Amino acid sequence: MEVIADVISWCLIVPGCFFLVTGALGLLRMPDVYTRMHAASVIDTLGATLLVLGLIVQAGLTLVALKLVFVLALLFFFGPVASHALAQAALHADVKPILAEDRRGRDVDPGPAGSAGSKEEPSS
Amino acid sequence: MILAAAERAGTVEHAAGAAAAVQKDPAMAAVTANAETFVMMILLTLLAAITLAIIRQRNLFGVVILAGIYSFLMASVMIALDAVDVAMTEASVGAGISTVVLLATLYLTDSVEYPRPRSVAIPLFVSLVVGAALAWGTIGLPAFGIADAPIHTHVAPTYIEYSKKHEMPPNIVTAVLADFRGFDTLGETTVVFTAGIGVLLLLQGGWRKSHNSRRDDEDNELDTDGDEA
Amino acid sequence: MRLDLILRVGAKLILPFILMFALYVQFHGDYGPGGGFQAGVISAGMVILYAIIFGVRAAKHVAPPRIVEMMVPGGVLIFAGTGVVSMFLGYNFLDYTGFAHDFLHAHEWGILIVEIGVLVTVCGTMIAMFYAFVERGRT
To answer: Are B192 and C122 in contact (CB under 8 A)?
Structure first.
């Protein structure tokens, strides 16, 4: 019985950590404020949710599991609210998002091959 | 030194936790001790990295956010040292109230740090000398968490046995804070009170003119909501 | 629809729970991590969140500045007052043994009242500092 709980919690915690690392990587590599926020919101919703679900499975049917359910509800509802507040603040401060048509004019080499890495990254 | 301060904060709980772990299973104690050391090393490295980033950052808004991250990392270090009360206080004060108050300060002043007016050699020399003196001073302290340090043989067992004998509430930290060392907590509360009054006197001037002014308050110093009407 | 609708609805949802959590941390300080300092900061955080989202004028209806400024020394008064009361009861300063018939209950009462004093002072100080910063305006 404990082995099943351990396996389930492993299957929940490890993808949660993977999404955490992916979100952090996206936070570093994305070119724009809005795309970075989109990557960072993955950390809040998917990464933290899977981690807390894995911890709930580990905790069993105790009071700790109930408190973790509350923590999960808080993170799940108010992580996106925080991202929304940040994006609205950026929009209010006139931070323009980098759109596709802005980048199209700046392509050095519009050829089919090797154009994935040749777009220059604008300094942010 | 961060480690010395955290050590004084978490010594009682850490000693109790380490003693309980050793009694359970010696092999398990060795494994958890290594994992805890590993986590502690990672957290302290992150603390040093954040401190370097704070020093190098010129934009004060970024510095305020980095200070909030520093407080969160400090709270994690305290949790790793089994001092949960102190961690909760550090997280709520450092990453909550302190960030808000610093942002309010930025709203009142400029948000870019001025360039350094003079050279940095003498302050750097003084900092290095004081830091070296502190590091040399910690050599004389007993090893971290060791069981026969004076604090673990005289004071802490007395408190633990006293609260066990009289069946006091389970959280010994609160019992120490409010009962055994209640006078120190009275001093702490007086310090908070004095600091609050000092800040209020500095910001509001002499008399309470803010109640009489009809100035329209700027409601959003953080740019989080839209304009009023 | 106003621009900050999501923030307002979210704040209205979470604010009672923040206050409830602050009181939980305060009164469960005997059985888990907690106590007066943490609870004071969390409840001050609730008022500050309300002020950030709904405006300082609305927050001043909830927590009037006069009451907040009276809370700052009020907590120290409660704390030192229990010490003086226990002196009047014949024991040492801040010795809670005289508050009830039993040693355990007397000390629990003493810890409770003292932590309430800490909560009042810390909460009042944080909110008063926030009001002072915001009222100053741009120089």
So the answer is: yes
